[in-house]
Amino acid sequence: MVEYYVMGVIRISMDECMDMDAKIEINGAAEDTQIYNGWKGRHLSYQRGKRVTNPNTSLIKLEGVEDSKAATFYSGKKVAFVYRAKREVRGSKIRVIWGKVTRPHGNSGVVRAQFRHNLPPKSFGASVRVMLYPSSI
């Protein structure tokens, strides 16, 4: 039995992984693995100094990540901010702003992320999903 261990967060055996893949094929989109479902995080704020904010870079607090060493694992991973809009576009009111984790920020598990379009200030405190791809393992 082969076990995968990722930075003290996920431990899953190859057999469990195969079972999850089989479940996905049977149930369709209802079931999903952690890789495509994403890791939970919160949009804290923009990167800032004492007076000036930099909306190009957002600060994301990842759930279960408590130090900068663990946060470096997420560098390069994709981030999704999913929200609902008023008007339907292509049959859906759900929209996504995609971004990428660039580096850790500080010593407490916060990371910096840059999005294709800057996140709106309304999203402060909102949840984001950090996808576990592209993988460097």
Describe the structure.
It is a single chain. The protein is of the alpha+beta class and 137 residues long. The chain folds into two domains: 1-37, no CATH class; 39-137, Beta Barrel (Thrombin, subunit H). It has three helices and eight strands. It has helices spanning 14-27, 34-37, 68-71, and strands at residues 3-6, 10-13, 39-48, 53-62, 78-89, 92-105, 110-115, 127-130. The strands form two sheets. A six-stranded antiparallel β-barrel has the order 3-4-7-6-5-8. The chain has a two-stranded antiparallel ribbon with strand order 1-2. The radius of gyration is 17 Å and the shape is globular. The two termini are 19 Å apart. The model is unreliable at 1-12 and 20-32 (pLDDT under 50). Pfam families: Ribosomal_L35Ae. This is 60S ribosomal protein L33-A. GO terms for molecular function: structural constituent of ribosome.
Per-chain topology:
Blueprint (H helix, E strand, L loop, with lengths): L2 E4 L3 E4 H14 L6 H4 L1 E10 L4 E10 L5 H4 L6 E12 L2 E14 L4 E6 L11 E4 L7
Antiparallel strand pairs: 1-2, 3-4, 3-8, 4-7, 5-6, 5-8, 6-7
